[in-house]
Write a structure and sequence with these properties.
The chain is of the alpha/beta class and 354 residues long. The protein has 14 helices and ten strands. The strands form two sheets. The chain has an eight-stranded parallel β-sheet with strand order 3-2-1-10-9-8-5-4. A two-stranded antiparallel ribbon has the order 6-7. Helix 2 packs across helix 3, helix 10 packs parallel to helix 11 and helix 12 runs parallel beside helix 13.
Length: 354
């Protein structure tokens, strides 16, 4: 078929096609074709001007959001290493500097410099995206570390100067600077994550191997890949999987509407990071988080040791609401006691109870 040879031609016609046929699902197109088409467009990380994996709202109810069957290698990880002790479940957002949370997550009059303090009393984890753009100095790191409770964890994203540099290499000043800075978080350090760009393909696996093996043994790292060639039937390909296992690296699982091909269940250890990309509380968000609760419950029963689960929403103000629902479900179905967001009450609300 013509669209198999020319995915770009396909995408050029998608927008008018959807406007004429809003009832037709995007999911009828093979995910790998969509992924390859994505990489063929200028900018690599955009799809017809949209963010990574984002699709128009009319498509959402037609997409197959089901989580794929478990990778058999994941079962082997549990069989070899699984224990039912020492579980950690972290749940949070990608950022804490959201002014829209004033009056809900934060007190209405909170000063921005105190946002982290308030955030860490509501949630127990954060996907630290700010480190993707600059490496904080040690005084800043120590201040963050001392601001949060004992059960809170930071999960820093590798700087783009490292992850998006060609070739990927540990032989640059930012490598040691980032490691040294993040180690300053001490016991508040969760799992760092290396998000590789869409153009990073299996031809560069040697670079990834050298990069990971240059990290200190006790430096926790998870890897997120986006190029469609890294996935086969919703599993990581063997060469990548083997490198991650040998390097002691964990996997990042990304659940996003427009790139179903990157959703996998390939655990390389008993620790995992999940990046859930919602759609502003669309009804499919609710069913998707229930599916994740079911899978995590199963993995916990098998001996999962740690999951850091981050919920993204296009409008940041919506993320706490879905996190609250997810936390309730995890606590109820997995018999956990994860700290839950308690919305700040406004003066008007307090008057109702006086």
């Amino acid at each position: 078929m013509g669209w198999r040879k020319s995915p770009v031609r396909l995408l050029k016609h998608l927008r008018p096609w959807v406007s004429r046929n809003p009832e037709r699902p995007l999911a009828c197109l093979p995910s790998a074709i969509m992924g390859q088409a994505l990489l063929s467009l200028p900018g690599s990380s955009t799809l017809i001007g949209m963010d990574f994996g984002k699709v128009p709202s009319p498509w959402l109810s037609k997409i197959d959001f089901s989580i794929p069957s478990q990778d058999p290698r994941t079962w082997l990880q549990f069989r070899m290493h699984g224990e039912k002790d020492g579980l950690r479940v972290g749940i949070g957002c990608p950022v804490w500097g959201v002014k829209d949370w004033l009056g809900s997550v934060y007190p209405k009059t909170a000063d921005p410099k105190d946002f982290l303090f308030h955030y860490s009393r509501q949630f127990n984890s954060i996907e630290l995206n700010t480190t993707h753009y600059r490496i904080p100095d040690l005084p800043t790191i120590r201040k963050w570390r001392d601001t949060v409770p004992d059960d809170f964890r930071f999960n820093p994203k590798f700087p783009q100067e490292l992850s998006h540099r060609y070739p990927l290499s540990p032989q640059v000043p930012e490598f040691k600077e980032f490691v040294r800075s993040m180690m300053g978080l001490e016991d508040k350090l969760g799992i760092t994550f290396l998000q590789l760009p869409p153009h990073f393909n299996p031809d560069h696996l040697r670079e990834l191997r050298n990069f990971l093996f240059a990290l200190p043994v006790d430096f926790p790292v998870a890897v997120e890949v986006r190029h469609p060639a890294f996935f086969h039937e919703h599993m990581l390909i063997d060469p990548l999987y083997d490198i991650l296992v040998k390097a002691g690296a964990h996997t990042v699982i990304t659940d996003v509407a427009g790139r179903r091909d990157v959703l996998h269940t390939s655990l390389t250890s008993l620790k995992v990071m999940v990046r859930f990309i919602g759609n502003d509380l669309h009804p499919t968000d609710q069913t998707r988080i229930q599916d994740w609760v079911n899978l995590l419950h199963h993995w916990i029963e098998l001996g999962l040791k740690q999951v850091e689960f981050f919920i993204h929403e296009p409008a940041d103000r919506n993320a706490p609401h879905l996190i609250s629902q997810f936390t309730d479900l995890m606590n109820e179905e997995c018999n956990l006691r994860i700290r839950k967001w308690k919305p700040e009450k406004t003066a008007e609300q307090l008057m109702l109870f006086s």
